[in-house]
Amino acid sequence: MSPSQRDPSRSSINVPSSYLSNVSNFKIIESTLREGEQFANAFFTTEKKIEIAKALDDFGVEYLELTSPAASTQSYNDCKAIVGLGLKAKILTHVRCHMDDAKLAVETGVDGLDVVIGTSSYLREFSHGKDMQYIIDTATEVIQYIKSQGLEVRFSSEDSFRSDIVDLLNLYRAVDKLGVNRVGIADTVGCASPDQVAELVRTLRGVVS
Predict the structure, then answer these.
(1) CA separation, residue 60 to residues 57, 80, 90 (Å)
(2) What angle do CA 172, 70, 108 make, to 5 degrees?
(3) Hey, which residues does 52 pair with through a beta bridge?
(4) DSSP states of 77-139
(5) Rounded to an integer, what distance in angstroms lies between the CA atom of residue 89 and that of residue 120?
(6) Could you tell me the pLDDT band of residue 3, with boundaries at 50, 70 and 90?
(7) Which residues contact 205 (CB under 8 A, 6 or more apart)?
(8) What is the pLDDT of residues 169-209, one digit of tens each?
(9) Packing angle between helix 165-177 and helix 194-205, nearest 10 degrees?
(10) How many CA atoms lie within 13 A of 42 on its CB side?
(11) What is the pLDDT of residues 148-163, one digit of tens each?
């Protein structure tokens, strides 16, 4: 057993208490009303969504994330219905980084938008077919619009862990300058280890405020 194993204070790894030292800075973004629908045979009626939203609000969740209003007419109407409940939790919706989606989401009265676009070479070639400059320009347009409406905005890259790190750094620097409230990363295909997640978070924290 090494000295660092016998004495946690000599270890280069943070002890658990240090992870909790700034827990008051964290807020829960609960995505059951989005992610919960993303598997086979999943379907929430409007009544069930309202029931879930109220239960989560009673629990004290700070943010509820809903399916994009652009997904369907029901998703749009459900979003408006939950916004109209007057919950303590702020209501967010998750949309593609596209002006049409952003404008539709704003119409529902949500408190903020979570904006996402694929950045890996795989998604750029086989999904939306756009280059990094297009992604930066589009993100700039969409984020500026959302901010002009007085709403919160989170920007996330899709398939972050298969994206080029230089591309990610340039993109996150650009959106940080626009005043986004939060940024996110996504291990879309489940390829990242915990250490890789920690490393990318650490690296991106160096370029966003």
Answers:
(1) 5, 21, 11
(2) 90
(3) none
(4) HHHHHHHTT--SSEEEEEEES-HHHHHHHHHTT-SEEEEEEE-SHHHHHHTS---HHHHHHHH
(5) 33
(6) very low
(7) none
(8) 999 999 999 999 999 999 999 999 999 999 999 999 999 98
(9) 40
(10) 11
(11) 999 999 999 999 999 9
Residue 24: phi and psi, rounded to 5, are -65, -15
**CB contact at 8 A, 35 and 68:** no
Q: Which residues, in sequence order, are CB contacts of 203 under 8 Å at separation 6+?
A: 165, 169
Name the one residue in this structure whose structure tokens are 């045979």.
41
- Are residues 161 and 191 in contact, defined by beta-carbon separation less than 8 angstroms? yes
pLDDT on residue 4: 44
Residue type, 131: D
Rounding to the nearest 10 degrees, give the CA dihedral for residues 93, 98, 99, 103. -20
Quick one: pLDDT band at residue 43, thresholds 50, 70, 90?
confident
Tell me, what's the pLDDT at 19? 62
Sign for the pseudo-dihedral over CA of 175, 177, 181, 184: positive
Distance CA 36, CA 96 (A): 18
What is the pTM (predicted TM-score) of this model? 0.86
